[in-house]
Write a structure and sequence with these properties.
Length: about 170
């Protein structure tokens, strides 16, 4: 994604996937994508993007590579790299994704009876403005009338660090 040294915010879809950050390392390890908390190879990164797309949207494919832009940032694939999924998600991978989504609903006390689809639409598919800085990536998520529910969010999402990502993610709403 980082193609220049400017600090202009770039609007991107699906930035709300950051709300699932707490699950990513273990989930990607269970999927066999990480070795020593780093992606094994570029195929592992592409599989991670495919899983992130499903987590955010329940879609198994995409119409426009732009939909994947924030996911590319999260796995450090250049934005100008075109992505193709070599094979569809397996039933097991889809089930594993749904388990992660249901787990977030169960841990977020105010969402107990919320559907996975509602979680995805109201939170995970949120657009954001992304800006690259020297040491971090700033993500400013769009606001929603449901933001009051974030008061009860079970995990800190304001500062996120992954072993495989060189920069810290700074998230705000």
């Amino acid at each position: 994604m980082e193609t220049s040294n400017n600090n202009f915010p770039v609007p991107l879809p699906n930035c709300g996937i950051i709300f699932l950050h707490f699950y990513f390392t273990q989930f990607f390890e269970e999927q066999g994508l990480l070795l020593n908390k780093e992606f094994k190879n570029s195929n592992s990164k592409i599989k991670a993007i495919q899983l992130l797309l499903y987590l955010a949207t329940s879609q198994v494919d995409f119409k426009d590579d732009f939909e994947l832009s924030f996911f590319k940032i999260l796995v450090e694939i250049p934005n100008d790299d075109l992505i193709t999924f070599p094979k569809p998600l397996t039933e097991r991978e889809i089930t594993d994704c749904r388990v992660v989504l249901q787990s977030l609903i169960e841990h977020w006390s105010v969402l107990k009876k919320t559907s996975i689809e509602t979680l995805q639409i109201q939170f995970l598919q949120r657009k954001g403005l992304v800006m690259f800085e020297d040491e971090s990536i700033k993500v400013h998520l769009e606001q929603s009338g449901l933001d009051i529910l974030l008061t009860y969010f079970p995990f800190d999402y304001s500062l996120v660090k992954f072993e495989w990502l060189k920069k810290l993610l700074r998230t705000s709403i």
